[in-house]
Every structure is written in C-alpha cells, then in structure tokens.
Amino acid sequence: MSQNIILGNICDSITYGVTASADFSETEGPKFLRITDITESGVCWDNVPRCSIAMFDKNNLLLRDGDIVVARTGGTVGKSFLVLNPPRAVNASYLLRLRPKRSFVEPDYLNLFLGSSAYWSQLREAARGAAQPNVNATTLAEISLPLPPLPEQRQIAARLKAQLAEVETARQAARAQLREADLLRRCVLQAAFDALADSGCPVFSLKNSAEIVAGITLGRKTKEMELIDVPYMRVANVKDGKLDFSAVKEVSATRREIEKLKLCDGDLLLTEGGDLDKLGRGACWRNQLPLCIHQNHIFRVRLPSDRYNPDFVSYQVGSTYGKAYFFAHAKKTTGIASINQRVLGDFPLLSPPLAKQLQIVTRLKSQLAEVDALHAALTEQQRGLDALPQRLLAQAFDTKVQP
User: Fold this and answer.
1) Looking at the structure, do residues 366 and 341 belong to the same domain, yes or no?
2) What does the alpha-carbon distance between residue 361 and residue 382 come to, in Å, rounded to a whole number?
3) Which of 213, 202, 215 is nearest to 308 (CA)?
4) Where does a domain end: 308, 326, 350?
C-alpha cells in the first residue's frame, strides 16, 4: 500500500554544494562534481577535476554511495544523478545533494521517480524565474512521491531498471537501422553517378550550362522607398534533397529585387555552406509558394529545360560525386566549410542526353521512394521507443501521486 510523502521527510538532508573552482592542476583536493561531468552514461570520475578547499570542516559535504544530486538552476534545472561508489568528492554549489534515509526509501527507487513526469510536473510548478529557472532546497523538499514499503520499492526499481535497459538496447538498434537507411540513400545515389562518370558521358562546367545567382542580403541599405514583404528561402529551409516550409520568413525587397530573384519551377537551390553538413546541400523548387525569393547564402541555379532535368542535377549534386567536389574545393576552417559562386560555377556537371537523364531520374525516384518509406517507418519506430521510458515511469509513479 503506497502513501504519498514529501522528499523532505525521507531525506536525512538536502544540502547545497561547495562554492569553489575546478582546478585541473590540483592533486590533493576532493573531486569537484559539476553538471557538465554528468552524461547519459554516467560520470567518468577520472575526468572530473579537483578543487582546493579546506576539508577539516567540510567532511559532511563529501558525496556518499546512494546520494542523489539535482541541478538547481539554469537549463538543466531538475535533472538528477544517482551517485554510486564515488571517490573522495564534493558537488558544485549549483547542485543540490539529497541523502535518502535508507530505512524509508531505496535510492534506486527515488532516482527513478526523479525521472518521471510526476516529478517534473511538480518541479515546473515549483521552479522560479523565467529566463533562469531555479529551485532551492526548501521547494525541492516539498515535492511529493508515492512511497510503498521498502520491499515493494526494490521490486519496482528492479523491474523498471530491467525494462529501461531493454528499451535502451532497442533504441540503440533502431538508431543503427536509421543510420543504415541514411547510408542506403547515399549508396543508391553513389551507384547511379559513379556508373555515369565511368561511362565517359560529356562533362560541362555548371557556369556554362546554367544561370547562377546569389540571393538577397539581409539588412542591406536601399534608397528606394517602396518595399514589399515577400517570403524568402533561408539556409534552414534548404535540406538535402528537399525544402522545409515549416518556418518561412519574409524580407522587405524592392520590385527590381523581386523580379530578379523570384523563384521559378525547376530552379535548384544550393547552400554555400557553414556547418559541414550544409556544404552544397540542395533541392529543387517546385512552385510551393506563389512568390518567393532566396537569401544570399543560397545560390539559385536555373537550367535550360531543353538540356537538363532539374531533378537529375539535384540528385547529382547530392550524390557522393557532387559532395566530394564541394568538399575538395571548399574554403575550410574548424568544423566550417563554404563555397563561393566561382567554385560552384566550376562544378563538373555530368551531362548525358536529356532522355538518359530522365531514365536515371525515373529509376532513382522509385528506389529512393522505397528508401524514404523505410526511413519513415524506422523514424516512427524510434519515436515510439523514445517515448517508452516515460510511459514505463508513468505506470510506476504518475497514477499514484495526488497533486
């Protein structure tokens, strides 16, 4: 039979941590546990720095096996971690330390409760501050939880830990399947264009085959008074092989700018880069909006319809063949890469006859539709598995807590 009880009544103490600084050169002081040291897989104590503090009056602040630390401020407020077999260590001041009364509560049981929606709903109500939410020892002590007898707590904890371990194994397998589906898409494109490159088909530079135009610069100054608000494509809208219309912004532009930059059916939009995954990323415009232009960090490539199929060129740019060219010729800094209009113009465009392009596009669309269907199914499976831990915790805790 469970009864509701507040945290303050089942903890020997809820205390603040130590105000100190991490010192990686310190060799004698205690380990100094910070929120940044806590990962999904736990804490690697070898990587936790020490701090220089006099411990003769601070021994009561040393972490013990079974203690739970809770972040009390900032974006991680409320997140908890169960301490197991710690070295000589203290926690930072922005972590609260809960020391459960083991005669009343099993630390594993309490730690699992602190991951449930029953806990989080109470914590959000208790937290103060919109920009920098925080809780203190007093408010944390008032959080209520269901507390069955110790033997039942241990049974619940053991069952939940086993279930959550099985779910995590399934989540990792699903993530691996998603990665394989992504790889399959790349392999389909690679096979098509590697074979085409090996066939000796004509190659022309993109600048001699298409019109390349950079987009509108945000925040530019103009002397013209009459400006029109018009939707525009940003880097965030251009994905690899598709356009994302979930958040389309507008920009004020002159009639001349709109006339020059308005997108037409079949235009290929390519990003200049930034993060490595954005380098040469592109998709075809298919008149999804009645009027739209593009930002200066996106190049518009307009191809002659009697010589090129835009989907063929889009697939080619997104293939290993295309990405290898962009990566080889991009300007690179740490984690960042970009191309300019000259590099894009020099792209060696594989240019078989239009009929051959259409054959390739028809085949690729069929193959990629199958890959996309597989990816969608795996994504849905992943979404369900990601939600399962909270469902399991809800079954154990939520229905038993009375607000």
Assistant:
1) no
2) 30
3) 202
4) 350
* Whether 342 and 297 share a structural domain: yes
Give, for all 403 residues of the chain, the pLDDT tens digit. 568 899 999 999 999 988 888 888 888 889 999 999 988 878 999 999 998 876 655 668 899 999 999 999 888 899 999 999 999 999 999 999 999 999 999 999 999 999 999 999 999 998 888 778 899 999 999 999 999 999 999 999 999 999 999 999 999 999 999 999 989 999 999 999 999 999 989 999 999 999 999 999 998 888 777 899 999 999 999 998 899 999 999 999 999 999 999 999 999 999 998 777 778 789 999 999 999 999 999 999 999 999 999 999 999 999 999 999 999 999 988 778 889 999 999 999 999 999 999 999 999 999 999 999 999 999 999 999 999 999 999 999 975 444 4
Number of domains in the chain: 3
Q: Do 207 and 344 reside in the same domain of the chain?
A: yes
Q: What is the DSSP string of 284-305?
A: E---SSSS-EEBTTEEEEE--T
Indicate whether 157 and 182 sit together in one domain.
yes
Among 350, 368, 394, the domain boundary falls at 350
Are 204 and 349 in contact, with CB atoms under 8 Å apart?
Answer: yes
Domain that holds residue 169: 149-201+352-403
Q: In whole angstroms, what is the distance from residue 309 CA to residue 397 CA?
A: 58
- Exposure pattern of 371-400 as b/e (b: 16+ CB <10 Å)? beebbeebeebbeebeebbeebbeebbbeb
C-alpha 86/C-alpha 45 separation (Å) is 8
Q: Mark whether 357 and 319 lie in a shared domain.
A: no
Instruction: Tell me: do 36 and 135 sit in the same domain.
Output: yes
Are 216 and 189 members of one domain? no
> Residue 315: is it exposed, middle or buried by C-beta count within 10 angstroms (0-12/13-18/19+)?
buried
| CATH number of residue 99's parent domain | 3.90.220.20
The encoded tokens of residue 128 equal 């103060």
Other CB atoms closer than 10 Å to residue 229's CB: what's the count?
10
Q: Are residues 98 and 187 in the same domain?
A: no
CA distance 245 to 169: 34
89: tokens are 């260590």
